[in-house]
Amino acid sequence: MKGDFDNPESYINRELSWCAFNSRVLEEAIDPATPLLERFRFVSIVSSNFDEFFMVRVAALKRRISEGDLSACPAGFTAHETLAAVSKAVRSTVSQLYETIEQQLIPQAVAHQIILHSYDSLNPKQTAFVEKRFEREIFPVLTPMALDPTHPFPNLLNLSLNVGVRLAPPSEEENERYALVPIPSGIPRLFRLPSPPGEHSFILLEEIVRRYLSRLFTGQEIREHTVFRITRDAEVELDDEGVPDLLEMMEGELLKRRTNPPVRIEVEKGISTGLLNFLLELMPVDKNEIYTHTSFIDPRFLSTIADITGLDHLRYKPLPPQMPAEFEQQEQIWPLLREKDIVLHHPYESFDPVVQLVTQAADDPEVLAIKQTLYRTSGDSPIIRGLARAASKGKQVTVLLELMARFDEERNIEWAKHLEKAGAHVIYGLVGLKTHAKILLVVRREKEGIRRYVHLGTGNYNDRTARLYTDIALMTADQGFGMDASGFFNTITGY
Predict the structure, then answer these.
(1) Which H/E stretch holds residue 443?
(2) pLDDT < 50: residue spans in the chain
(3) Do the Cβ atoms of 160 and 183 come closer than 8 Å?
(4) Which of 204, 245, 303, 369 is the most exposed place for a label (fewest CB within 10 A)?
(5) Catalytic residues, which ones?
(6) pTM to 2 decimals?
(7) Roughly what angle, to the nearest 10 degrees, separates helices 246-257 and 409-422?
(8) Strands 177-182, 145-147: parallel, antiparallel or unpaired by DSSP?
(9) Up-side HSE of residue 442: CA atoms within 13 Å toward CB?
(10) CB atoms < 10 A from the CB of 227, how many?
(11) Which residues contact 44 (CB under 8 A, 6 or more apart)?
């Protein structure tokens, strides 16, 4: 048996395994049995998954290579070999992705009167609409940026779209000039166009910007324009030994993330060698990190099309979460949990009982303390609001808020400050450890004495993702669970 565990052929490379997983997600978009708008959603998911994969996994491989790490994974791949294999696997899946979009999804959408327009395909009414929107909403926020020795290359935001522009030289003795126009992130990328009843017509923001580039480069000859996007290393590595303020250190690391080196550049097919080489001089990456796409870059916007109202026949039949019968019959949660333990299975059963536990605890004068771990929460979290309200009412509120929740770090910092301002005691994780436990403890004064109510779950305290992800949770007033929960929180708040 020992020989089997030592044999690299007994293992699958972690990064290649992830690529295979994302390929299986794409299969859901390729499958004609999947409803059309759900296929759009799966394409968006695949694209989003690849973004995170490059920002984290590929970035980590590049760091290992730059550090001279020659060690091999259990499957026998060095970082350099893994990166080469990953590039090949990703290109294969991305090629399938765009083939699916262009040859299947877009034509089938048109058959259902869902149309993604180019500017030249607009009718006069739509053209007038776009011109008006450009003048009022888009033009004021556009910033053309010259790229020459007197204009340093701007710090392009991670995953932001940009238009690269090649301009004619001002005279025969001079060279061509280059510029770029960042696509504003504060404006919706997908513009809905006026259209006849039953038709859903859209145009992309970058399509509008490209059409009106002459307004930004008045009196100059535009020889070429192309959309491109960069993906930066977004991994946060904290050396937290002896750190006096973990929150301040995390804020500093997040600022660094904005200027981390690129790990991928996506460009449109047809970009000239001159423009591409110029961009690569400013954003040095290896050739295998350049991805050329046959149509629009970043298909994540297709999830917006997937959410078009009034087209339920093109989506899966909704399966709303069910409220457990016990909670429908009982307004107060305390007598219910004193009577028996309750197991919840999300998303099939509602997350509302968990929110109810926090909100009732916040407003109940007999509740003395609430202690909770938080990893990821929703944008307008009822859990956070309940904890803040409890703290403002003088209850002892303790929150272990994990700052190292990838890509939710900034949001968690905001929540931490909000809770502290309300009077809660917030801990920012433990040095050397990542807290992924999901536990909620409510301490309540009752006739029989102090009683503890506990919620334990596999899912984050996020009322939105609880409608999507499969998780299981236990709600209990069992004394043993309560003592364990108290011991857990005493350990992480003390030494």
Answers:
(1) strand 439-446
(2) 1, 242-244
(3) yes
(4) 245
(5) 436
(6) 0.85
(7) 150
(8) antiparallel
(9) 31
(10) 23
(11) 299, 300, 301, 302, 303, 306
